[in-house]
Structures are given as structure tokens and as C-alpha cells.
Amino acid sequence: MIDDTDKTSDILRAHAEKTEQNERPAPESLDALREAGDFALRTPSEHGGTGAGVEAVARRLTALGRACPSSAWVTGTCATAKNLAVACFPGSDELFADADALFCGSGVPGARGVRDGDVVRVSGRWQNVSGCEDAAWASVAVLVDGVFSFAVIPVAELTIDRTWQMAGMRGTGSQTLVAEDLSVPASRVAAAAPFGLNDQMLYSMTVLGPVVGGARGALDATYAMFASDRKPFMSAYTRMGESPGARHWLAEAAHLVDRAEETMLSVAREADARALSDADSARLRMALADAGRDARAAVERLLDLNGAGGFRTANVLQRFWRDVSVGSRHPHLNPYLAVETYGTALAGACDAR
């Protein structure tokens, strides 16, 4: 079980409600994440960062998500955006001068660019850019003269359209970034190769880690409820733990969270250990989708244990429920496409025999 007993998690937990209300990470949370080096997880080591592997990223985001899934999500987006910047602009002193700078980004080519001498003129919109209101740099996909490329742009040069209106993961501040005929130095625009499978697994961890962490945070809240004087209503029991049924459901939920976490870490370890092949992709995506579903199912079981009181706005459980419900439905964790892809791969392997 991933531990979160550190100062950063305590600060995130204390300001999680403020993060949700403000629809962006609380300043205190951002300061704590920066101080802990969490924004430097994928900053190259030669520039003062951690250069963390896939498993290390997954573990850290899970620990942070246990306290505040939205803050963990923004931290994960930073890791993804920095990874993209490193791939396109390795060794850039300009981009990595501050190892702890917050990056945001989007891999969806929401803009077009036209080369004009030493600049590329960029116009377009990138939706759902987590953490953009507090980020220094944005790594964004652009079609430049029809070629899939990435540009790294100071967020201060872009406009933010506040379009993020969601039931869960509200604190990610995943607003829309807008560029209107923006001149970007050609040195900060580069054609991009298709994402490698190992990188894809890293990007999936930045989504799944906060989700698994959120499920564990919901489990923590339920443990606290069992330790209190709360009893099953309309029963003769004096405490929740006296009920065999309640103990059974608690065990089921804990098992689902543990299984989600171990599945995630198993995939992460495989991605760290070797170069993944196309044959690995469908199997691992199925595993990640299963982990997301396990996390969501666990929280649903915990809500059943807590009853209607779990939906009080003062109860942290309902925030974890909303965050996990939204986060686990990210495209990286799409279960029906994972099943479809895996089934196609298995049928193809049978045909080839």
C-alpha cells in the first residue's frame, strides 16, 4: 500500500476543499508541491530534476491523490507536459532553467501554425488544459503546415477561456488555452514523432495514479467512520464494525483498491523494465482500464457503507466519489475500447497460428 504520510499530503488534504471551490489548486498546495519537488518529477536530472521513472511517478501521484486528486492530477499533467518538451527540445536551457516550474499541456492538435521566417504563427484552442492558470509553460500540439508538431509557449502569452464546468476534478482548473495569430519562435516548435508505448504508459499513470489515490482517500474516510461511534441506522448494532455485512463490504472495497493499485504498479514496473512492443499494448491497456474500474467500484461500495450521509457536502467522501468518477473515465482508461482492442489483438493472434 502506498503511503502518504508526508508534509505535502497533509497540506494538500487541508486545502482540498479550497482547491475545489476555487477550481484550481490552492496556492498553499502549489507551494507545497513545488517545495517537495513534485513539479520536477520529469524535469531532466541534468537540469536539477528527478527524471523519475514510470513506477516512481505512479507511486507519487497515488500518494498525492489520496489527499487531493485534483492537485495530483495537475502534478501529473506537469509530468506529461515536461516529458513532451524533453522529447521535442532535449537539453533546452530556456525551458528547464527552473526545474520546479509548473508545465501544462495538450496532446490534441487544437491549433494550426504557419511558418513565417524565424517564427511560427499559431492560432487555435486547446481544451481541458489542467493547471493552465498557474503554469509557466504550455506544451501544446499544433499542425504546422499540416505536420503534427509541438510548441512550448509561455502561458502568459496565451488567453485562458474558463470553460471547465465539471462535477468532479473541479480543482484541476482544466480550462481552454487560446492563441490568436501568436508568433512563436521557430526554435520552440518541433515536428513530433508518434508517442512511444513506454511514454504512453507514463501518460496513463498520470491519470490513473490520482484516481487510485482518490479511491484510497475514500477508503481512509470510511476507516475513520468505522472508528467513530457511527452505527448502521435502523439496526441493533452499536458500531459499524459489529455488522458482519458491513465488515464484508469494507473488505470488498479494500480489496478492490489494493487490486487497482497493484495492477497499476505492475504495468508501471513493466514499462520501466524494457521497451514495450505492439504486442504488449492491448494487454496493458486492458489492465489499466480494469484498475480504473476497480477504483470506481470500490468507491461505490464505500458510499453504500456510508449511506446518504456520504453525500453531505461537508463529507470528504463525496468529493473523492466525484473526482474518481470523472477521472476514471479519461480516454486513457476507456474500458470498452480497451476490451475491443484486446479482443481484436487476441483474435488476430489466433488467426496467425
From TrEMBL:
Keywords: Oxidoreductase. Residues 209-334 form the Acyl-CoA dehydrogenase C-terminal domain. Residues 13-76 form the Acyl-CoA dehydrogenase/oxidase N-terminal domain. InterPro entries: Acyl-CoA_DH_C (IPR013107), Acyl-CoA_Oxase/DH_mid-dom_sf (IPR046373), AcylCo_DH-like_C (IPR036250), AcylCoA_DH/ox_N (IPR013786), AcylCoA_DH/ox_N_sf (IPR037069), AcylCoA_DH/oxidase_NM_dom_sf (IPR009100). Residues 1-29 are annotated as: Disordered. Pfam families: Acyl-CoA_dh_2 (PF08028), Acyl-CoA_dh_N (PF02771). PANTHER family: ACYL-COA DEHYDROGENASE, ISOVALERYL-COA DEHYDROGENASE, MITOCHONDRIAL-RELATED. This is Acyl-CoA dehydrogenase family protein.
